[in-house]
Amino acid sequence: MIEFRNIWKTYTDGTEAVKNFSLTIRKGEIVTLIGPSGCGKTTSLKMINRLIEPTAGSIYIDNQDIKTFNIDELRWNIGYVLQEIALFPHLTIAENISVVPEMMKWKRKKVKKRCEDLLDMVGLEPSTYMDRMPHELSGGQQQRVGVVRALAADPDIILMDEPFSALDPISREQLQEDIRRLQKEIEKTIVFVTHDMDEALAIGDQVCLMKEGEIVQYDQPQQLIVSP
Ligand code: ADP
Ligand code: ADP
Question: Which residues form the signal peptide (predicted)?
Answer without folding.
Answer: none
